[in-house]
Amino acid sequence: MSYNKPIPTPSPLTQPFYDGAKEGKLLLPRCQDCNRVHWYPRHICPFCHSVNIDWIEGSGEGRVHTFAVQHRAFGGWAEEVPFVTAYIDLNEGDRMVTVLRGVDANDPASIRIGAKVKVEFDQASEDIHIPFWRVVEE
Ligand SMILES: [Zn+2]
């Protein structure tokens, strides 16, 4: 295994997400009472405080909300600088932080707010697959 970056340890709260990721699915927590998706996984809905949370399969699509170019990093990420981190507006609602792919970190003016993105997964270990987002249109 060549993945050399931090690997999350799932908790009972986050295990469904990683089970989905292993199958290439972006599972998202959704409140059964107000029907809103939230990210990151929580025991209580951040919008209406309900504890009735389930998981839905997201489209794996979204748009760039904002981004930043990273010039310094630690561990395995140090080998990747410069790279771009971004907030993704998920099509289902709320936002996810990612390392953005399909962009030129040396030409940040070429990166467009609102660019369409799709999720992809890196296999970090036997059971852990990590989501990253890639710009799929200019
Ligand atoms: Zn809610």
Shape: globular
Structural class based on helices, strands and sheet pairing: mainly beta
Helicity, in percent?
A: under 10%
**In total, how many beta strands?**
7
Rg is: 16 Å
Give the number of helices.
1
The overall pLDDT average reads 97
Q: How far is the first residue's CA from the last residue's CA?
A: 33 Å
Order of SSEs? HEEEEEEE
Describe the 3D structure.
The chain has one helix spanning 15-22, and strands at 27-31, 53-57, 61-70, 83-90, 95-101, 116-123, 129-135. The protein has 138 residues and is mostly beta strands. It has one domain. The chain has a 5-stranded mixed beta barrel with strand order 3-4-5-7-6. A two-stranded antiparallel sheet has the order 1-2. The longest helix is centred in the first third of the chain and has 8 residues, at 15-22. The relative contact order is 0.21. It binds zinc ion. Residues 31, 33-34, 36, 45, 47-48, 50 line the site of zinc ion (ZN).
